[in-house]
User: What shape does this take?
Amino acid sequence: MASTLLYLLFVFSCCCFASAQTSGDTNVTEITDDDGVTTVATGVGQWTQTEGAAADWYMLTTSTSGEYMYAIADKVIWISNDFGNEWFQSNAPPLSYKELATNSSGQLVYALYPSIDEESASIYISTDFGATWTPSYSLTPQGYYQSLTCSSSGEVIYVVGFSTDIYVSMDYGDTWRSPESTNVQDEGFFQVVTDSSGKNATTVSGSGGGVFSTNDYGVSWFRQNFNTPSNQFTGVQMSSDGKVVMVVDIFVLGGIYLSTNYGFDMRQLPNAPNITVSTITASDDMQFVMTLNYQNDMSTYFTGDGGESWNITEYSTHPNDGNEDESFFTIAAAGTGQLFVAGDYGGGLYLYQPACPTG
Assistant: This one.
């Protein structure tokens, strides 16, 4: 109950505060904080800077509610336990972690460390909201792993890499197996996602391999009968029930593709923004989706209707922060879709709250 109350207070304070005013363009909102610093949000909602330190923010993930957030920056795993408002360093070993995944509550966290050193652990695990971390040596062989994801319980884990096989654990990372399929080896996998149960999963190739799916906990995989002009996929998201899948092709303008039947029958979204999309994040129901513009990394595009319509959301940098190289590098969505977080590579962390209902 206390967590729910904290979240409701956060939503109200971030989204419905009196200092916001709309300019002549009804799609542009200017927001002035207590220090007199003005930000400009175009589209629905607004970006606000958090108390996170300036760093090279590389990767973000959140619990379903957004109360617990985890980030990678400069070989450090950072933690927030108050919906992203304040951040602190964990005591995880200082390593070049590649990706993080958490269960629905945020209590169980996996950190992926790609290494070919046989004496190094490939995964570090926390079972207490990031307070302590334990190396796991069970994932072998070591390799340049790129992405991992887990079920809502954290019991089922998938790991993929550029030059590795797909690996699946059904017991919280204690043991691992590779699929029986032989068509998913060395495909240059860039990202993998799973549904809440872990039964359905999809992974995408960033080197022309295509889109691959499983519906049996990773025992067998099949390539989706779907291609784009480049087949260079760098992002994928899946709904909690596995039915809705969205992928992005970084070399296709407006290259956002949607399936509503477990990855089959992909179609390009007709109203997708005409940009080069590098990554994508979404709510559990795939209604609230945000993309990152590869050619202009300070801009993101947001949809609240599953991709039927999109609005640009831009953040006006602080005029006196002395950083001219700010750019959003990573974004993540809470499962509720009511909170997004973005990492500025070389700058700070920012929160996005979809606009409050009117009327």
The two ends are 28 Å apart (CA to CA).
